[in-house]
Specification:
The chain is of the alpha+beta class. The chain is built from 40 helices and 32 strands. It has an 8-stranded antiparallel beta sheet with strand order 17-18-19-13-14-15-16-20. Strands 9-8-7-6-12-11-10 form a 7-stranded antiparallel beta sheet. A 5-stranded antiparallel beta sheet has the order 1-5-4-3-2, covered by helices on one side. The longest helix is centred in the C-terminal third of the chain and has 38 residues. InterPro entries: EF-hand-dom_pair (IPR011992), EF_hand_dom (IPR002048), GRAM (IPR004182), PH-like_dom_sf (IPR011993), Rab-GAP-TBC_dom (IPR000195), Rab-GAP_TBC_sf (IPR035969), TCB1D9/TCB1D9B_PH-GRAM1 (IPR036014), TCB1D9/TCB1D9B_PH-GRAM2 (IPR036017).
């Protein structure tokens, strides 16, 4: 290809000149081509790989040089001699003579460079090539990647790194290529080549390891091998990218959410690093956005625009705190460099003014931000302040219209005008409606005063406290409220509150009952989603009411099991509110729908929050704070169970081995995590845990769980079995009390189910929580995320293995394949599906829609015709070696296996077909072959009213047949001459003999049917025959007719018109007819042939020849002719005339005739009974995969 001219100082170094003229030189890289150029070529090839030379991709180049100059310019390079020769010839024909006219060398150089750049520009214009953000160096790496590993253009390279791959005890220096779907390695050292290709979806473990020999190494584990890479220039960057790509692959396996490139991410950093792809930059931006959203509990669609260092003036302690400012589309956030010192979230919907303040030596480059609730935030020490202010102003302008819209639709007011609310944008709500509302009033507007639903927290209805009642508990509760009010006055209220260590201390001491719901909404970030989606919950409820599916059935079943001991859920008001929230969420997120334990958590949310607020709290819980916890396979809970086991091994090692032996950790952790301890602790104590969880996140649950184990360490070490250990933990959790609770005691269901042993001494919940922070507070959120990644790989791959085992266990009794063979076949089947998901296909179905983890195991992976063709050519013994008719045979086989006609086949259907070919007996294989060559069609036979069949004179019909075939020799063509061994020659003759025999049977049957039609027409009234229509239910239906293409037809045709209703009178008999069917062909034609047969020249000739043993009769029928069939069996095959597009209504062959004919030839019998080497075919399929191009899709290494 032509390249922009670049200067080359040494033209002959490591290159060999092959052609030259006064102005241009064509060169080839040493070591390229035959022989590799000896030792010098081996050294050059090694240097090219190690140094990442562009000559690896383009071993040919053309240089330009003026006669008197020592400077060379590279103007073209090529990956093949043909490509570079075309460029050379163009130069000789179009430029060489023109250059001789110029007198000045500078003019010649300018002309050549301009001409080459013009060619490139014209090419880009004609081929719609757009300039992208990738550097030229990275574009070369992409070409190398595709060339080395045979990857299609759809496979996007993210980045590549120099490293060593340890093969055995020998390191191989080379390059590691990380693409969206694969991790690849290539090394070439002194003639030895090493290649490795691994799918991200096949990785079971990915970790950094450090040993004395390899201080910085990455270990990549699959189900079959471990691979170690070392000597990275930046191992942290490499490993983070590998983690991210593996996470994407796991997400695809989990719920089909593929990665979509997002090039719209604006960046504050205007300098982009060199040698980094645009895709890599987008992935980095995505990872930063995920960390940003997790840190500040922001909505899932929020994208980080950029961040910069700064200081924040904090009025509560009169200090400038050093930290980082983060700017995104809808938020400005700040976190201090000292993690717990201060954090701040400012939604742009709350901002009124952003302005630059006066700079001074004490306060350089300050920016002031004011909000609606009259708070002002002063940031200073900002780099590039003007650019930052402009970015914020742009985002503010985008949100202005949204703010006015929200004011009009939600009627929101400032919190300063609403003394009862802590949230600056919380809309006013009407008072609680009456319980006795009618069913017809259920369609409601949440902002309407007439709403007959729980517009207040359910707890307010059941707070049994008289105005004059006053006791120490109420006094303590009052002091808590005062402390929170004082804190809000000092640190700000609503979303823009300064969140400090003092805020955390107040949370650990317990949130007051009447402030709990609003603070949950604030700390979880749910307030942001509710404020930006006015009316969303109302619409969901209206759409979901009255609709039923599996999720709503499960919800109805669990409604009365949700805190049944609490009076709020002992009446229809609480139950109806719970039903609406759960059903609305099931319709919002059908991937989750409804999962057990959601009802318990949601019922607690409804006690303290309004109905819409409870819904958004549930959204925050399921989609952000507890990701993947409540899907059908509780993957998130299983992941955190693995994290908990790791933490237990680290923090309570003396107890870990004992707990593992008893199997207790896996039992307790699911119930503890899924319900946030609500199902195992007394209610008034568990809500304190929920307080801490909404403020600190999942680390609180891990800390508390470890503390519970640590507190019972001696009893657990003495436990003899898991039952005793569970009893110890159950008693302990039942004894956790909240002495400050003003609520009436609620009997705990878990405590009612324990034994009658001595109760455990009471444990104060606040002391338990405080103790968990003191002992295990060092657990960091980022460390938990690292552990989650490691466990997610393990959990999802375990689920995939379980799915495989369940599928194999289901169908192992239905086939003769062994369990190991079925597992290998399942892996190949799944890989075919995943490949189509990665790179798409030409099929009509969407690959990502074919994998639904919620379906039964056998239905989770399905493939279409395009994927089936790939497997057919590799695994099925009938697939032609030369591939000439492979696609047609695959099509026919696929139609036969697709029982439900949805153009997709599952693993059971796939195995059923393969099993017949590999392990079926002779009759089964022939029956399958017979069915493969028919297309769906309907034919009903004539049924005589008298129940009698006319016996024909067979001698008369044979004489007629003999006369009709006198000209047969004239139309026959010589069979092809084949160079075959004796066995194949015998097989060939056997096929020809059987075909001739079937031809004779069909021709005889044709004459029988034709004579019967004549007799029926003589006996029936002509008028009746004209008015009689085709019968609808008057006969049996054969499985179809052979596929055959007419003369000159080059495309598949398969059209059939349905039979019409039958008409009958008292004198005649019912007539049946079949409309014309246009058929498809599988064999070449000869214009003078009335019967033809396809013979292949390999061992599968009998299979492909059978695709055309549906021989053509000499008769011709018009398109509107009717087919009158009598006494035709269910498996009869009908064949049309060659020179017509209609069915030859008289030619017929039954399966019994076909079977009997084949059995007459021993060679065919031996061929079909020949055993198939299944293991060899599976091994070959694993090593060679045909998907667009030859590609090794399993982890292999050569060299």
């Amino acid at each position: 290809m032509w390249v922009h001219p670049e200067e080359v100082l040494q033209a002959s170094a490591l290159w060999i000149t092959e052609r030259a003229n006064p102005y241009f030189i064509l060169q080839k890289r040493k070591g390229h081509g035959d022989g590799r150029g000896g030792l010098a070529g081996l050294l050059v090839g090694t240097l090219d790989v190690v140094l990442d030379s562009s000559a690896r991709v383009a071993p040919y180049r053309i240089l330009y040089q003026t006669p008197d100059s020592l400077i060379y310019w590279i103007i073209a390079h090529g990956c093949s001699r043909k490509e570079i020769t075309e460029h050379w010839e163009w130069l000789e024909q179009n430029l060489l003579q023109t250059l001789s006219i110029f007198e000045n060398e500078n003019d010649i150089t300018t002309f050549v460079k301009g001409k080459v750049q013009g060619i490139i520009a014209e090419y880009n214009k004609n081929h719609d090539v757009k300039e992208d953000d990738d550097t030229d160096k990275f574009k070369e790496a992409i070409c190398t990647f595709r060339k080395l590993f045979g990857m299609p253009e759809e496979e996007k390279l993210v980045n590549y790194y120099s490293c060593s791959y340890w093969k055995g005890h020998v390191p191989r220096q080379g390059w590691l290529y990380l693409s969206i779907n694969h991790i690849c390695f290539y090394s070439y050292l002194l003639g030895k080549e090493a290649k490795l290709v691994i799918r991200w979806a096949d990785i079971t473990q990915l970790e950094k390891s450090a040993t004395l020999l390899l201080p910085d190494a990455v270990k990549v584990s699959t189900r079959v091998a471990e691979h170690v890479f070392s000597v990275f220039l930046n191992i942290n960057e490499t490993f983070k990218l590998m983690e991210q790509l593996a996470n994407i692959a796991m997400r695809q396996l989990l719920d089909n959410e593929g990665f979509e490139q997002d090039r719209s991410l604006p960046k504050l950093k205007r300098k982009t690093p060199k040698k980094v792809s645009a895709l890599k930059r987008d992935l980095d931006a995505r990872a930063k956005s995920e960390r940003y959203r997790a840190l500040f509990r922001l909505p899932k669609d929020e994208k980080l625009d950029g961040h910069t260092g700064c200081t924040l003036w904090t009025p509560f302690n009169k200090m400038h705190i050093l930290g980082q400012m983060f700017v995104s589309t809808n938020y400005i956030c700040f976190t201090s460099k000292e993690e717990t010192l201060c954090s701040l979230i400012i939604p742009l919907r709350e901002v009124t003014i952003v302005e630059k303040a006066d700079s001074s030596n004490f306060l350089p480059s300050p920016v002031s931000i004011s909000t609606k609730n009259r708070m002002t935030f002063l940031f200073a020490n900002l780099k590039d302040r003007d650019f930052l202010v402009q970015r914020i102003s742009d985002f503010l302008q985008q949100t202005t219209s949204k703010i006015y819209f929200e004011r009009e639709t939600t009627g929101s007011v400032n919190s300063s005008d609403d003394e009862g609310s802590l949230l600056s944008s919380s809309p006013q709500r009407s008072s609680l409606g009456s319980e006795g509302s009618s069913e017809g009033e259920r369609q409601f507007n949440l902002n309407d005063n007439s709403v007959p639903t729980a517009t207040q927290a359910l707890m307010t209805m059941y707070r049994r406290r008289s105005p004059e009642e006053f006791n120490p508990k109420l006094a303590k509760e009052f002091l808590k409220e005062q402390a929170w009010k004082n804190h809000i006055t000092e640190y700000g209220q609503g979303v823009c509150m300064y969140r400090t260590e003092k805020t955390k201390d107040l949370v650990l001491k317990g949130i007051p009952e009447n402030m709990r719901g609003e603070l949950w909404l604030l700390f979880s970030g749910a307030i942001n989603e509710m404020a930006t989606h006015p009316g969303y919950y109302e619409d969901l409820v209206e759409k979901s009411m009255g609709k039923y599916n599996l999720a709503t059935e499960e919800i109805e079943r669990d409604l009365h099991r949700s805190l049944p001991e609490h009076p709020a859920f002992q009446n229809e008001m609480g139950i109806a509110a719970l039903r609406r929230v759960l059903t609305a969420y099931a319709f919002r997120n059908p991937n989750i729908g409804y999962c057990q334990a959601m009802n318990i958590v949601t019922s607690v949310l409804l006690l303290y929050a309004k109905e819409e607020e409870a819904f958004w709290l549930l959204v925050a819980l399921c989609e952000r704070m507890l990701p993947d916890y409540y899907n059908t396979r509780v993957v998130g809970a299983l992941v955190d169970q693995g994290v908990f086991e790791e933490l237990a091994r680290e923090y309570v090692p003396e107890l870990y081995d004992c707990m593992q032996d008893l199997g207790v950790i896996s039992t307790i952790s699911l119930s503890w995590f899924l319900t946030l301890f609500l199902s195992v602790m007394p209610f008034e104590s568990a809500v304190v845990v929920v307080d801490c969880f909404f403020y600190e996140g999942i680390k609180v649950i891990f800390q508390l769980a470890l503390n519970v184990l640590h507190a019972n360490i001696h009893q657990l070490l003495g436990a003899k079995d898991d039952g005793e250990a569970m009893t110890v933990l159950g008693r302990y959790l039942d004894s956790v009390t909240n002495k400050d609770s003003t609520l009436p005691p609620i009997p705990h269901l878990h405590s009612l189910l324990t034994d009658d042993g001595d109760p455990h001494p009471e444990v104060d919940i606040f002391k338990l929580v405080r103790s968990s922070y003191e002992k295990f507070g060092s657990i960091r959120a980022d460390v938990i995320e690292q552990m989650r990644f490691k466990q997610r790989l393990r959990v999802i791959q375990t689920i995939e293995d379980t799915t495989k085992r369940n599928v194999v266990r289901t169908i192992v009794t239905e086939t003769a394949f062994s369990i190991d063979e079925l597992e290998e076949l399942y892996v190949l089947f799944k890989e075919e599906h995943l490949t189509s998901c990665y790179w798409g296909g030409t099929g009509g179905s969407n690959p990502t829609e074919r994998h639904d983890p919620s379906l039964p195991y056998l239905e989770q992976y399905r493939i279409d015709l395009e994927q089936f063709r790939g497997l057919f050519s590799l695994l099925f013994p009938w697939a032609p070696v030369n591939g000439a008719h492979a696609d047609l045979l695959a099509l026919r086989f696929f139609r036969l296996l697709d029982h439900n006609g949805d153009s997709l086949i599952n693993f059971r259907e796939f195995i059923s077909g393969l099993s017949v070919l590999c392990h079926g007996d002779l009759t089964e294989k022939l029956k399958l072959l017979y069915k493969m060559h028919v297309i769906p069609g309907k034919c009903v036979c004539t049924v005589h009213r008298k129940g009698k069949l006319h016996t024909p004179d067979y001698r008369h019909y044979l004489r007629l047949w003999n006369q009709g075939t006198k000209n047969k020799l004239d139309n026959m063509k010589d069979l092809p001459k084949l160079n075959q061994d004796a066995q194949e020659q015998e097989l060939y003759h056997a096929t020809a003999t059987v075909t001739s025999l079937l031809l004779e049977m069909g021709e005889v049957g044709k004459l029988f049917c034709h004579s019967k039609d004549q007799e029926e027409q003589d006996q029936d009234d002509p008028e009746e025959a004209k008015t009689s229509g085709p019968a609808q239910d008057g006969g049996t239906k054969p499985e179809g007719v052979f596929q055959q293409r007419g003369q000159g037809e080059g495309k598949e045709e398969s059209q059939a018109r349905p039979c019409g209703p039958a008409k009958r009178d008292g004198r005649g008999e019912q007539l049946s007819a079949m409309e014309e069917i246009r058929l498809e062909d599988s064999s070449p034609k000869d214009t003078g042939t009335s019967s033809s047969m396809l013979i292949s020249d390999d061992e599968t000739k009998d299979d492909t020849s059978m695709s055309s043993y549906s021989v053509l009769s000499g008769g011709s029928h018009e398109l509107d002719d009717k087919l009158h069939c009598e006494d035709i069996n269910d498996d009869t095959v009908l064949v049309r005339s060659e020179n017509s597009t209609s069915i030859d209504k008289d030619w017929a062959i039954t399966f019994e005739q076909f079977l009997a004919s084949v059995l007459t030839e021993q060679a065919l019998v031996l061929y079909f009974e020949k055993p198939v080497e299944v293991a060899a075919r599976i091994t070959n399929a694993k090593n060679v995969r045909k998907v667009g191009c030859s590609l090794l899709l399993v982890a292999t290494a050569s060299g």
